[in-house]
Amino acid sequence: MKGKFVLAQVASVGDPAVNLKKAKELAENAYETYHPDVFIFPEMFMSFFPWRTDRDTVLSTAQPLDGPFVTQMRKLAKQYGMWTVFGMNETVEDPNDHRSYNTIVVLDNRGEMVSTYRKTHLYDAFGYRESDVNKPGDRFFDPIETPFGKIGLFTCYEVRFPEVARDQRRKGADILLMPTAWAAGKIKSLHFHTLITARALENGVYVLACDQCGSDTIGESVAVDPMGVTIASAGEGEELILACTDTDRVQEVRRKVASFDQRRPDLYRG
Q: Catalytic residue at 188?
């Protein structure tokens, strides 16, 4: 099974309406240029704020899954017949919990909501505390059967936890999507590319990382195949990149390097 994935590396702002307008422009561009099967936006695409923005401002943009932003994105996916994946700031159900979820939404080519994922491992690192603003999810993503292969997913910082990607592989994923807003900083680009390549190699999967770009994030969205080969990459600014996947390649690599099947769970957990 072959798939055409377009990654929209963008610099989102805090206003969902502005980002929605950008989504419409990019979707039209992607459709006319590539006719992709799957169109991917970064983590927190709906509303993204600079580091150290006050908590109330960030939380003020939260919306439920049936809110106006998701509703319009569903129309967009249906209009262009593209599976669409994007990050959002989702309202928490508990009125006493003054946080939001860092959520990824997956829509099919009819605009139906196939799945959602609330980030489970929050970015409490490098002096930042995502857990002050976001509530962690309580389950991993359940990979989805698609015409392009079985798709798994995790978000940004979770690439630092091999167990998350391994869970997706264990559940049969061929392709892992990684919407991200990878914070800029010393050697952060090295970490980004090293970790993504490692997760692809150790699991025999494609890893497609779609990043925010701008002053606080690095851009550099990348797609890596199951052998760790970069098949598409972006620079530091806004752009669309095309990554083509093939499950025959997945099986070919797994025959050559059967490390997943050669694990010794009797000796260790995970």
A: no
